[in-house]
Design goal:
By secondary structure, the chain is mainly alpha-helical. It is built from 21 helices and 4 strands. The radius of gyration is 25 Å and the shape is globular.
Length: 461
């Protein structure tokens, strides 16, 4: 008699089919895939030009990261540059070398891997109050939005990784009119971002009172992949702005090489870049991402898994000269804002990065150097606003007070860690104030009752 066995392959294929399932129309998923490029392209371009970053290795490794995280988390998990390391690398003098950048990224990754593997990250995630996390998200979102407006209004200074003080001209292929046209197009097609969800309650209630033609028009507008169209427009403008790009492009990937990191590189990279990056990665790349995924996708991620994911990615790629990366709440909000709902969205993005990295290699920097920064500013603006709107669930005055103080300190001191510390202290003070008043009331009641029962023990004695 034969015994029936359950094959393992169908189960694995079923898991893969679930991961590769579209949760939104294909056009929306593709549009959401480019939703976080407003931060990715400027930082990668600057590090390539200033610090000699290996662009080919960065595109290939981040492409693999996108595919892996899309399959692992089943949401559009972003892969973004470690912003603090990038800022230190190009803004401080002397500039960090590729080996020092890699050392900073590997040090940060090892810290997050240790926190995740030991369970300390999950402990922090469950311990940190929600108003403090919302304050960090609000400050990050508003800082993205402020930077995006500066991208639109002013020229970009690649040497400082920031917009310059010279205003952007109105006309031209990277002019103010072009950026404003892209902004209006995205607003008209996507609205406030709610129309993409077919089961959105507000849209369903309002549509019952609208005419059939108006509902059809709104569905048509919300189905337009606005971010994807704007991004491809920017690519076309790259070749129009500088036709010599065609001559400078070289086909084939650049040669991989393992970096030689000396003890001096480890010391400089850790002290100058890793120390300011570690608290930002803990807060924004792990804790804020887990909270935001629960808000946007109703899916609570494991802080341990996200932390280990950041650690493993960089401990592999940094040795080959790839840019240090992490997950980010801003990128997740941006991809959600433009229609990404499944991990398949970032898988598409990862495949695109792999193709570009393998076909053009480091010569792709010629295209990125001509990409209109004003268009990237428009994409970054919507990502920042979407991230800031995650704080809308602070309904009580106490929670709003903690959140706003945390955000204000974070934005004034330009440090998420400083705002986080102030928010935690404020939260504990408010709880201590409530605990103190209740304990005083309890103590007064015990004093009123104690004389009645105090005679019995004395008699026993």
């Amino acid at each position: 008699m034969e015994t029936a066995t359950t094959p393992l392959l169908p189960d694995r294929c079923g898991w893969l089919r679930r991961r590769l399932r579209l949760k939104n129309p294909l056009s929306s998923e593709l549009s959401g895939a480019v939703g976080d490029l407003g931060t990715f392209i400027p930082i990668v371009l600057t590090l390539t030009l200033v610090s000699n970053l290996d662009l080919s290795a960065t595109l290939i490794f981040t492409g693999f990261y996108n595919i892996a995280t899309g399959l692992l988390f089943d949401i559009p998990m972003p892969v973004q540059p470690m912003k603090s390391i990038a800022a230190v690398a190009v803004s401080e003098s002397p500039h960090l070398t590729p080996s020092q950048i890699a050392a900073a990224g590997a040090s940060t990754a090892a810290t997050l891997l240790l926190l995740g593997a030991t369970g300390a990250m999950s402990f922090l995630y469950n311990l940190i109050p929600l108003p403090v996390v919302r304050g960090v998200q609000l400050s990050q979102g508003l800082q993205f939005a402020f930077t995006a407006i500066k991208y639109v209004r002013f020229d970009y200074d690649a040497s400082t990784l920031k917009p310059s003080t010279s205003p952007r001209s109105w006309l031209g292929l990277d002019g103010l009119i072009l950026a404003l046209a892209a902004l209006l197009f995205i607003i008209l097609s996507t609205g406030s971002g709610n129309d993409r969800d077919g089961d959105d309650g507000d849209f369903a209630e309002s549509s019952s009172n609208e005419s059939q033609s108006r509902r059809r028009r709104l569905r048509l507008l919300s189905s337009i992949p606005s971010a994807l169209i704007v991004f491809f427009l920017g690519l076309v403008l790259c070749f129009i702005r500088d036709p010599s790009i065609f001559k400078d492009l070289k086909f084939g990937p650049s040669k991989f090489k393992i970096l030689k990191i000396t003890w001096e590189d480890w010391k400089i990279g850790f002290v100058r870049a890793a120390i300011p990056q570690i608290p930002l990665s803990v807060l924004n790349s792990v804790i804020a991402v887990c909270k935001l995924s629960n808000d946007l996708f109703d899916k609570e991620l494991s802080a341990t898994t996200v932390s280990v994911s950041v650690g493993v990615m960089n401990l592999i790629g940094c040795w080959f000269g790839a840019m240090p990366v992490c997950h980010g709440a801003g990128g997740l909000a941006g991809q959600y804002r433009f229609g990404a709902r499944s991990g398949l969205s970032v898988i598409f993005l990862g495949v695109g990065k792999l193709i570009v990295g393998l076909v053009f290699g480091n010569s792709f920097v010629r295209i990125l150097s001509q990409f209109p920064i004003g268009i990237l500013g428009v994409l970054l603006l919507f990502a920042g606003i979407e991230l800031a709107m995650a704080s809308k669930d602070m309904n009580t005055k106490e929670d709003s007070f903690i959140m706003l103080v945390c955000a204000a300190v974070s934005m004034t001191g330009s440090s998420a860690a400083l705002g986080f510390g102030c928010g935690v202290v404020l939260y504990l003070l408010l709880k201590l104030r409530t605990l103190d008043s209740s304990s005083v009331a309890l103590f007064s009641r015990s004093n009123d009752v104690s004389p009645v029962y105090s005679e019995a023990p004395s008699r026993v004695a």
